[in-house]
Specification:
This protein has about 300 residues and is α/β, with parallel strands linked by helices. It contains 10 helices and 8 strands. The strands form 2 sheets. A 5-stranded mixed beta sheet has the order 6-5-4-7-8, with helices on both faces. A 3-stranded antiparallel beta sheet has the order 1-2-3, with no helix packed on it. The structure holds zinc ion (ZN).
Amino acid sequence: MLEFEQRFATEEASLDYLFQLRWPDGFRCPRCGHRQAWAMKWNLYRCACCHFLTSATAGTIFQDTKKPLRLWFRAIWHLTSQKYGANALGLQRVLGLGSYHTSWTWLHKLRRAMVRPGRDRLSGTVQVDETYIGGEKPGKRGRGAAGKALVVVMVEVKEGKIGRIRLRRVPDASGPSLKGAVKDGVDLGTTVHTDGWEGYAGLSKTGYVHEVVRESADVGKNLLPKVNRVIALLKRWLLGTYQGRLQPPHPDYYLDEFTFRFNRRTSRSRGKLFYRLVQQAAAIAPVPAKDIRGGTADL
Ligand SMILES: [Zn+2]
């Protein structure tokens, strides 16, 4: 914490950090690609060639913010330090924000940044299964369940251990939905392990090496232990962070947050996690307020 406070003691230091992240090889004009610029006041740079005016925050989620970048960094630091995720109330308290709404909006913007743009798909051997999250009653496979979200859980298995994961919400457990999710999260040619559910039939025709490791979809020994372990952790995390509430329209963000944390669980350095999240926040486009409004305000 002390190190963080010293590192980002001033707004200037925070802007410098962002500048380095955006332009590690030095300034490059986003319009014409020219490498020289005049530094203007307020973090602005004018391209020496085409005179385009830009800044380190332009085109990132920090664009148009009225709050100091320092405060955003503090929010990210807080977010990366919470093992079970952060909630809007906690963030509001830590940052001393007057408005709960601001804190809630920031949290949603930062959750968006947790999805790495153009992230790579899983490969090697991947276990795939679905689970219901949210709601109160257990859901039935292949059909929708009221108040629940059906999530496809994809887990890479490397040398007998759990590697990276991908989570994808689907409308139902039909063939097209499941295949769509797998295509989205897993590289073609990968060996995919599933149970015998008919929705997975045809994966081999889609370009995967499909192995059914359990014929019965309901009974028998647990032959997909890795994916089941991840499902158990996901449910525990949701329970600890959101008291199990996970209602539309925003469940995807929570799944992204879990994925971000899970895939970096072995990263011992909190600084590295912070770096990664700032980097991703700088790499995604600004999030329009209209895309965030209308969510569950009690989260
Ligand atoms: Zn230019």
